[in-house]
Protein backbone atom coordinates (compact mmCIF):
# COMPACT_ATOMS: atom_id res chain seq x y z
CA UNK A 1 0.00 0.00 0.00
CA UNK A 2 2.94 2.34 0.62
CA UNK A 3 3.57 2.60 -3.13
CA UNK A 4 -0.04 3.35 -4.04
CA UNK A 5 -1.39 6.76 -4.83
CA UNK A 6 -4.66 7.04 -2.94
CA UNK A 7 -7.55 9.49 -3.19
CA UNK A 8 -9.81 10.05 -0.17
CA UNK A 9 -13.14 11.61 -1.13
CA UNK A 10 -15.13 13.45 1.55
CA UNK A 11 -12.27 14.76 3.71
CA UNK A 12 -14.21 17.60 5.32
CA UNK A 13 -16.52 15.19 7.15
CA UNK A 14 -15.55 13.10 10.18
CA UNK A 15 -15.25 9.79 8.33
CA UNK A 16 -12.90 11.18 5.72
CA UNK A 17 -10.68 12.83 8.31
CA UNK A 18 -10.38 9.57 10.26
CA UNK A 19 -9.41 7.72 7.08
CA UNK A 20 -6.66 10.28 6.47
CA UNK A 21 -5.53 9.86 10.07
CA UNK A 22 -5.25 6.10 9.67
CA UNK A 23 -3.27 6.47 6.45
CA UNK A 24 -0.84 8.66 8.39
CA UNK A 25 -0.52 5.96 11.08
CA UNK A 26 0.20 3.37 8.40
CA UNK A 27 3.08 5.48 7.09
CA UNK A 28 1.54 6.54 3.78
CA UNK A 29 3.47 9.61 2.65
CA UNK A 30 1.61 12.85 2.04
CA UNK A 31 2.75 12.99 -1.59
CA UNK A 32 0.88 9.74 -2.23
CA UNK A 33 -2.46 10.95 -0.84
CA UNK A 34 -4.98 13.19 -2.61
CA UNK A 35 -7.75 14.82 -0.58
CA UNK A 36 -10.99 15.47 -2.49
CA UNK A 37 -14.19 17.30 -1.66
CA UNK A 38 -17.23 18.54 -3.55
CA UNK A 39 -16.83 22.14 -4.72
CA UNK A 40 -13.69 22.74 -2.65
CA UNK A 41 -12.61 26.39 -3.04
CA UNK A 42 -9.14 26.94 -4.47
CA UNK A 43 -6.56 27.05 -1.70
CA UNK A 44 -8.45 24.76 0.72
CA UNK A 45 -6.10 22.60 2.79
CA UNK A 46 -6.44 19.89 5.42
CA UNK A 47 -3.99 18.54 7.98
CA UNK A 48 -2.24 15.25 7.29
CA UNK A 49 -0.55 14.22 10.50
CA UNK A 50 1.37 16.73 12.60
CA UNK A 51 3.77 17.95 9.95
CA UNK A 52 1.97 17.93 6.60
CA UNK A 53 -1.00 19.60 4.95
CA UNK A 54 -2.82 18.41 1.85
CA UNK A 55 -4.39 20.53 -0.85
CA UNK A 56 -8.10 19.70 -1.10
CA UNK A 57 -8.97 19.15 -4.75
CA UNK A 58 -12.36 19.73 -6.31
CA UNK A 59 -14.01 16.36 -6.93
CA UNK A 60 -15.77 17.59 -10.07
CA UNK A 61 -12.48 18.46 -11.75
CA UNK A 62 -10.14 15.76 -10.42
CA UNK A 63 -8.52 13.31 -12.85
CA UNK A 64 -8.56 9.88 -11.21
CA UNK A 65 -5.84 8.72 -13.60
CA UNK A 66 -3.46 10.31 -11.07
CA UNK A 67 -4.24 7.64 -8.44
CA UNK A 68 -4.37 3.85 -8.19
CA UNK A 69 -7.19 3.63 -5.66
CA UNK A 70 -9.84 5.74 -3.94
CA UNK A 71 -11.96 5.60 -0.80
CA UNK A 72 -15.31 7.36 -1.11
CA UNK A 73 -16.46 8.50 2.35
CA UNK A 74 -19.44 10.28 0.84
CA UNK A 75 -23.20 10.12 0.54
CA UNK A 76 -24.82 7.60 -1.79
CA UNK A 77 -25.79 10.45 -4.12
CA UNK A 78 -22.20 11.60 -4.59
CA UNK A 79 -20.87 8.05 -4.90
CA UNK A 80 -23.40 7.22 -7.62
CA UNK A 81 -22.28 10.24 -9.61
CA UNK A 82 -18.48 10.04 -9.27
CA UNK A 83 -17.42 6.43 -8.59
CA UNK A 84 -17.98 5.58 -12.26
CA UNK A 85 -15.62 8.42 -13.15
CA UNK A 86 -12.90 6.83 -11.02
CA UNK A 87 -13.48 3.31 -12.35
CA UNK A 88 -13.26 4.59 -15.91
CA UNK A 89 -9.66 5.63 -15.19
CA UNK A 90 -8.76 2.14 -13.85
CA UNK A 91 -8.86 3.41 -10.29
CA UNK A 92 -9.99 0.79 -7.77
CA UNK A 93 -12.66 2.04 -5.37
CA UNK A 94 -13.83 1.29 -1.84
CA UNK A 95 -17.22 2.90 -1.29
CA UNK A 96 -18.51 3.65 2.22
CA UNK A 97 -22.06 4.50 1.12
CA UNK A 98 -25.04 2.32 0.22
CA UNK A 99 -24.95 3.39 -3.44
CA UNK A 100 -23.94 -0.01 -4.86
CA UNK A 101 -25.23 -2.32 -2.16
CA UNK A 102 -27.73 -4.07 -4.43
CA UNK A 103 -25.28 -4.63 -7.31
CA UNK A 104 -24.42 -8.32 -7.65
CA UNK A 105 -20.95 -7.57 -9.00
CA UNK A 106 -20.07 -5.31 -6.03
CA UNK A 107 -19.16 -7.37 -2.96
CA UNK A 108 -19.67 -5.95 0.52
CA UNK A 109 -16.68 -6.81 2.68
CA UNK A 110 -15.68 -6.59 6.32
CA UNK A 111 -11.97 -7.33 6.55
CA UNK A 112 -11.43 -10.44 8.63
CA UNK A 113 -14.97 -11.73 8.11
CA UNK A 114 -15.52 -12.39 4.39
CA UNK A 115 -12.19 -11.49 2.77
CA UNK A 116 -12.64 -14.15 0.07
CA UNK A 117 -15.55 -12.17 -1.42
CA UNK A 118 -13.07 -9.58 -2.68
CA UNK A 119 -12.47 -11.82 -5.70
CA UNK A 120 -16.00 -10.93 -6.88
CA UNK A 121 -15.06 -7.26 -7.35
CA UNK A 122 -14.91 -7.63 -11.13
CA UNK A 123 -15.30 -3.89 -11.70
CA UNK A 124 -12.62 -2.97 -9.17
CA UNK A 125 -15.34 -1.72 -6.81
CA UNK A 126 -16.01 -2.93 -3.26
CA UNK A 127 -18.63 -1.67 -0.83
CA UNK A 128 -18.19 -1.58 2.95
CA UNK A 129 -21.16 -1.67 5.34
CA UNK A 130 -22.38 0.86 7.85
CA UNK A 131 -20.13 1.20 10.89
CA UNK A 132 -22.75 -0.42 13.13
CA UNK A 133 -22.81 -3.53 10.91
CA UNK A 134 -19.02 -3.82 10.89
CA UNK A 135 -19.04 -3.55 14.67
CA UNK A 136 -21.65 -6.30 14.98
CA UNK A 137 -20.25 -8.88 12.55
CA UNK A 138 -16.55 -8.57 13.40
CA UNK A 139 -16.83 -10.38 16.78
CA UNK A 140 -18.81 -13.09 14.95
CA UNK A 141 -16.08 -13.68 12.35
CA UNK A 142 -14.86 -16.99 13.81
CA UNK A 143 -18.27 -18.06 15.11
CA UNK A 144 -20.57 -18.02 12.10
CA UNK A 145 -19.38 -21.23 10.48
CA UNK A 146 -18.57 -23.22 13.63
CA UNK A 147 -21.85 -22.58 15.43
CA UNK A 148 -24.11 -22.02 12.38
CA UNK A 149 -25.62 -18.65 13.31
CA UNK A 150 -29.25 -18.50 12.21
CA UNK A 151 -30.67 -15.39 13.90
CA UNK A 152 -29.37 -12.11 15.33
CA UNK A 153 -31.33 -9.55 17.32
CA UNK A 154 -29.39 -6.32 17.82
CA UNK A 155 -30.19 -3.10 19.63
CA UNK A 156 -27.86 -0.24 18.75
CA UNK A 157 -27.17 2.94 20.68
CA UNK A 158 -25.58 5.27 18.11
CA UNK A 159 -23.92 8.61 18.74
CA UNK A 160 -24.85 11.77 16.89
CA UNK A 161 -21.76 11.44 14.67
CA UNK A 162 -23.67 9.02 12.43
CA UNK A 163 -25.40 12.14 11.08
CA UNK A 164 -22.16 14.11 10.75
CA UNK A 165 -20.80 17.33 12.21
CA UNK A 166 -24.10 19.22 12.00
CA UNK A 167 -25.75 16.70 14.32
CA UNK A 168 -22.87 16.80 16.80
CA UNK A 169 -23.10 20.60 16.81
CA UNK A 170 -26.83 20.36 17.48
CA UNK A 171 -26.23 18.18 20.55
CA UNK A 172 -23.60 20.61 21.83
CA UNK A 173 -25.83 23.63 21.27
CA UNK A 174 -28.80 22.01 23.02
CA UNK A 175 -26.77 20.99 26.07
CA UNK A 176 -25.37 24.50 26.34
CA UNK A 177 -28.80 26.10 26.04
CA UNK A 178 -30.31 23.79 28.65
CA UNK A 179 -27.60 24.76 31.12
CA UNK A 180 -28.18 28.43 30.23
CA UNK A 181 -31.96 27.93 30.73
CA UNK A 182 -32.55 29.01 27.14
CA UNK A 183 -35.17 27.76 24.66
CA UNK A 184 -34.42 24.95 22.18
CA UNK A 185 -36.93 26.14 19.57
CA UNK A 186 -34.26 26.97 16.99
CA UNK A 187 -32.04 23.97 17.71
CA UNK A 188 -33.95 20.96 16.34
CA UNK A 189 -33.01 20.87 12.67
CA UNK A 190 -31.23 17.49 12.35
CA UNK A 191 -33.30 15.53 14.84
CA UNK A 192 -37.09 15.34 15.07
CA UNK A 193 -36.92 15.43 18.88
CA UNK A 194 -34.61 17.00 21.46
CA UNK A 195 -31.37 14.98 21.48
CA UNK A 196 -29.72 16.45 24.58
CA UNK A 197 -30.37 14.24 27.65
CA UNK A 198 -32.70 12.09 25.54
CA UNK A 199 -32.79 8.87 23.50
CA UNK A 200 -34.43 8.90 20.05
CA UNK A 201 -35.70 5.55 18.66
CA UNK A 202 -35.22 6.59 15.04
CA UNK A 203 -32.09 6.51 12.86
CA UNK A 204 -32.68 7.63 9.26
CA UNK A 205 -36.09 7.80 7.60
CA UNK A 206 -38.88 5.27 7.99
CA UNK A 207 -39.36 2.50 5.44
CA UNK A 208 -42.71 1.09 6.46
CA UNK A 209 -42.45 -0.03 10.10
CA UNK A 210 -38.65 0.07 10.28
CA UNK A 211 -36.10 2.77 9.63
CA UNK A 212 -33.50 2.81 6.87
CA UNK A 213 -30.76 2.11 9.43
CA UNK A 214 -32.59 -0.97 10.71
CA UNK A 215 -33.21 -2.20 7.18
CA UNK A 216 -29.55 -1.67 6.33
CA UNK A 217 -28.35 -3.67 9.33
CA UNK A 218 -30.56 -6.55 8.24
CA UNK A 219 -29.69 -6.48 4.53
CA UNK A 220 -25.97 -5.77 4.92
CA UNK A 221 -25.42 -8.41 7.60
CA UNK A 222 -27.10 -10.99 5.35
CA UNK A 223 -24.87 -10.05 2.42
CA UNK A 224 -21.76 -10.45 4.57
CA UNK A 225 -22.66 -13.48 6.69
CA UNK A 226 -24.86 -15.30 4.18
CA UNK A 227 -28.48 -14.99 3.13
CA UNK A 228 -29.82 -17.61 5.56
CA UNK A 229 -29.07 -15.50 8.63
CA UNK A 230 -32.10 -13.62 9.97
CA UNK A 231 -31.53 -10.22 11.55
CA UNK A 232 -33.82 -7.98 13.57
CA UNK A 233 -32.39 -4.56 14.40
CA UNK A 234 -33.53 -1.80 16.74
CA UNK A 235 -31.63 1.47 16.26
CA UNK A 236 -31.61 4.50 18.55
CA UNK A 237 -29.60 7.71 18.83
CA UNK A 238 -28.13 8.57 22.24
CA UNK A 239 -26.76 11.96 23.37
CA UNK A 240 -23.09 11.15 22.73
CA UNK A 241 -20.73 12.67 20.19
CA UNK A 242 -18.75 9.63 19.03
CA UNK A 243 -19.15 5.86 19.31
CA UNK A 244 -21.77 3.16 19.13
CA UNK A 245 -22.89 0.56 21.66
CA UNK A 246 -24.75 -2.62 20.74
CA UNK A 247 -26.46 -5.42 22.63
CA UNK A 248 -26.32 -8.44 20.30
CA UNK A 249 -28.36 -11.63 20.84
CA UNK A 250 -27.34 -14.58 18.68
CA UNK A 251 -29.21 -17.85 18.08
CA UNK A 252 -27.35 -20.80 16.55
CA UNK A 253 -28.23 -24.17 15.02
CA UNK A 254 -25.44 -25.91 16.92
CA UNK A 255 -24.93 -26.23 20.65
CA UNK A 256 -23.35 -23.14 22.17
CA UNK A 257 -20.40 -23.17 24.56
CA UNK A 258 -19.85 -19.64 25.88
CA UNK A 259 -16.31 -20.42 27.01
CA UNK A 260 -15.44 -21.56 23.48
CA UNK A 261 -17.14 -18.47 22.05
CA UNK A 262 -15.08 -16.23 24.34
CA UNK A 263 -11.90 -18.01 23.26
CA UNK A 264 -12.69 -17.57 19.55
CA UNK A 265 -13.63 -13.91 19.91
CA UNK A 266 -10.34 -13.27 21.71
CA UNK A 267 -8.53 -14.74 18.70
CA UNK A 268 -10.26 -12.36 16.28
CA UNK A 269 -8.13 -9.56 14.87
CA UNK A 270 -9.22 -6.04 15.85
CA UNK A 271 -11.53 -7.37 18.59
CA UNK A 272 -10.73 -6.99 22.29
CA UNK A 273 -12.61 -8.88 25.03
CA UNK A 274 -12.85 -7.00 28.34
CA UNK A 275 -15.46 -8.89 30.31
CA UNK A 276 -15.44 -8.89 34.10
CA UNK A 277 -18.56 -9.49 36.16
CA UNK A 278 -17.86 -6.63 38.55
CA UNK A 279 -18.87 -2.98 38.72
CA UNK A 280 -17.23 -1.22 35.78
CA UNK A 281 -15.92 -4.49 34.32
CA UNK A 282 -17.12 -3.59 30.84
CA UNK A 283 -16.32 -1.07 28.11
CA UNK A 284 -18.38 2.04 27.30
CA UNK A 285 -18.46 4.62 24.51
CA UNK A 286 -16.13 7.06 26.26
CA UNK A 287 -13.51 4.32 26.70
CA UNK A 288 -13.04 3.65 22.98
CA UNK A 289 -12.79 7.05 21.31
CA UNK A 290 -9.85 7.07 18.93
CA UNK A 291 -9.49 3.27 19.09
CA UNK A 292 -9.42 1.01 16.03
CA UNK A 293 -10.71 -2.13 17.76
CA UNK A 294 -14.19 -3.39 18.64
CA UNK A 295 -14.52 -4.09 22.37
CA UNK A 296 -16.71 -6.93 23.68
CA UNK A 297 -18.15 -7.19 27.21
CA UNK A 298 -21.09 -8.84 29.02
CA UNK A 299 -20.71 -12.13 27.09
CA UNK A 300 -23.19 -14.65 28.46
CA UNK A 301 -25.53 -17.53 27.70
CA UNK A 302 -29.03 -16.59 26.55
CA UNK A 303 -31.12 -19.03 28.56
CA UNK A 304 -34.37 -17.86 26.93
CA UNK A 305 -33.64 -19.89 23.77
CA UNK A 306 -31.73 -23.00 22.78
CA UNK A 307 -28.19 -22.42 21.55
CA UNK A 308 -28.21 -18.73 22.30
CA UNK A 309 -25.71 -16.20 23.61
CA UNK A 310 -25.49 -12.44 23.90
CA UNK A 311 -22.85 -9.75 24.28
CA UNK A 312 -22.34 -6.01 24.53
CA UNK A 313 -19.92 -4.38 22.12
CA UNK A 314 -18.71 -0.82 21.67
CA UNK A 315 -16.55 0.90 19.07
CA UNK A 316 -15.58 4.29 17.76
CA UNK A 317 -17.86 4.32 14.73
CA UNK A 318 -15.52 6.63 12.83
CA UNK A 319 -12.23 4.84 13.57
CA UNK A 320 -13.09 1.15 14.04
CA UNK A 321 -16.43 1.13 12.23
CA UNK A 322 -15.41 2.98 9.07
CA UNK A 323 -11.74 3.99 8.73
CA UNK A 324 -10.16 0.75 9.90
CA UNK A 325 -12.36 -1.40 7.68
CA UNK A 326 -12.24 0.86 4.62
CA UNK A 327 -8.43 0.98 4.63
CA UNK A 328 -8.13 -2.77 5.30
CA UNK A 329 -10.52 -3.54 2.44
CA UNK A 330 -8.57 -1.19 0.17
CA UNK A 331 -5.46 -3.22 1.00
CA UNK A 332 -7.29 -6.45 0.10
CA UNK A 333 -8.61 -4.95 -3.13
CA UNK A 334 -5.26 -3.63 -4.34
CA UNK A 335 -3.46 -6.87 -3.46
CA UNK A 336 -6.08 -8.83 -5.35
Could you explain how this protein is built, in words?
- It is a single chain.
- With 336 residues, the chain is an alpha/beta fold.
- It folds into two domains: 137 residues, NAD(P)-binding Rossmann-like Domain (Rossmann fold, 3-Layer(aba) Sandwich); 184 residues, Dihydrodipicolinate Reductase, domain 2, CATH 3.30.360.10.
- The chain contains eight helices and 15 strands.
- A seven-stranded mixed β-sheet has the order 3-4-2-1-5-6-7, with helices on both faces. The protein has a six-stranded mixed β-sheet with strand order 11-8-12-15-14-13.
- The model has no long low-confidence stretch (mean pLDDT 94).
Q: What overall geometry do the principal axes of the alpha carbons give?
A: globular
CATH topology of the largest domain: Dihydrodipicolinate Reductase, domain 2
Helical segment count: 8
Strand order of the largest sheet: 3-4-2-1-5-6-7
What is the H/E string? EHEEEEHEEHHEHEEHEEHEEEH
CATH architecture classification name of the largest domain: 2-Layer Sandwich
Compute the number of strand runs: 15
Low-confidence stretches: none
Largest sheet: 7 strands, mixed
Rg of Cα set: 20 Å
Q: Name the beta content range.
A: 15-25%
Cα separation of the termini: 12 Å
**CATH class call of the largest domain:** Alpha Beta
| Average predicted confidence as pLDDT | 94
Total individual domains: 2
- CATH homologous superfamily heading of the largest domain: Dihydrodipicolinate Reductase, domain 2
* Class per helix and strand makeup: alpha/beta
Q: Give the % helix.
A: 25-40%
Amino acid sequence: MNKLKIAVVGVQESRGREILGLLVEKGIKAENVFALEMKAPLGTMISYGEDDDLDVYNLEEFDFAQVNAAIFATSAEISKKYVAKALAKNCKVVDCSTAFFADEDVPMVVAGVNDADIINAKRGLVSVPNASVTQMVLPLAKLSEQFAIKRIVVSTYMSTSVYGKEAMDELFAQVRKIYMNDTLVDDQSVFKKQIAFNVIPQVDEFIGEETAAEWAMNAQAKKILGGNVKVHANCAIVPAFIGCGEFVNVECDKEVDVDEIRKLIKQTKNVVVFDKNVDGGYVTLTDVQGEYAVYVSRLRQDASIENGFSFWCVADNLCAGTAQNAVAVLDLLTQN
